[in-house]
Design brief:
about 500 residues; Four Helix Bundle (Hemerythrin (Met), subunit A); Elongation Factor Tu (Ef-tu), domain 3; 3 domains; 6-stranded mixed sheet; 3-stranded antiparallel sheet; disordered N terminus
Length: about 500
Amino acid sequence: MTLSTELARGHRRPPPAPPRSGRFTLADPLGALAILSVVAVVALWVMNQGGPLSLTASDRATGSLGLLAGLLASDLMILQVVLLARIPWVERSWGHDLLTRRHRLIGFASFWLMIAHVTLFAVERSTREPTAIPDALLRLFITDSWMLFATVGTLLLIMVVVTSIRAARRRLRYESWHLLHLYSYAGIAATFPHTFTDGADFHETWTRVYWWCLYGFAFAATLLYRVALPAWRSLYHRLRVESVATEAPGTVSITFKGHRLDRMRTASGQFFVWRFLDGPGWSRGNPYTLSAAPTPDRLRITIKSAGDGSERAARLTPGTRALIEGPYGTLTARHRTRPGMLFMAAGIGITPMRALLEDAPYAPGEATLIYRYGEDEHAVFADELRAIAADRGVELILLPGPRRADTSWQAAGPAHLADASWQVADPAHPAHPDKTRRQAAGSAHLDDDAQVLKNLVPDIADRDIYVCGPPTWITAVRKAARGAGAHRDSVHTEEFAW
């Protein structure tokens, strides 16, 4: 692949100034609105049920607490849908990784509140009719207005939560998990009607307006940003496979040609959810990161075989249409705040680093790439990385071999760190590592991850650190970077996990 030298040079500019402490971002009002919605729900319960006063009477306490749990569960369900509705300004403010973690946290909280809601009302009905418990529960879960729908919806949500537990997810293919996860929308929709027909907190006009607006916003945002916008972009940009090239055993790069791709304002480091119109199963989307800087008419992704979707992608033929959702992710140079840049990648995590190296705004000597991989044959983009290093003055450190341990970011190859592959084409280049620093890196005690990293990159505190790889490896890098003196906010990550 021929590097676009003019493109790389065109993006070079002086590094931005460090951010001011207390800088305002859109994440601030977003968090405030989320908290306010929970406060509003509690206020509704207090106004309609009497709040703590409703707990003083034993015959009302169980039902009142059950109602509060149900209201909070409904509110959090809506919040978790909005978090992953792919609203562009929400994605840009918080980033996809953080949104996913908060979606998961809020989802589990909503689930347990829903279970508490169901359990408390079951206890209330049983206590109220101790001689006819089966009939009372039958009415509660089946025959009362819209309760059968609510019961089915609850069962669907239980299935989604069970399959979201990490132990269960490890046993599922991504495609299967993603399909099951979509049933959460059906579950939420099925529980919706009974709240308006049976919930005391929905009988007044203004409370109905509040809840209708909340549900309506979540529905509209999901429909607009997860269905309508991706459909329009796919139709307008008309992406088709241009070529498929093997990069390493089990790893291929796919180049797409499209129309006016610059209008999406895609940045290196971002990813799309891709669907390929090559036959049955096209509706299952998979997230893949750009592995080259985007241009006005081309995008490239690189895929390692890890399931049905990735294996299928390797068999694509030129001319195949592609549908896209995105771009997503905040692992971009837009978030750069410090003079230098450090890129760290493990395995297929090199894909966004490769794109960032090509067009990120850094001068010669300001960027370092540390790339850890297993065997030499699995060193994806090795030649391209060397070419970029030579063209843009990047310090390139290649660390082959398996990981030393699950808690370490280092490789456990036979070569000492001092003998690792350090490369800048011109030994007189400002980015070229001097012999003293190479020896210092190699002499560090390998059990001290932070000291090894500090010796490799002495000015790490003055760099933005971009990290991509498996979750446990990212965790090890974060810990080592903090120990080496890097500020927490200077570490930018993207996990290759789901």
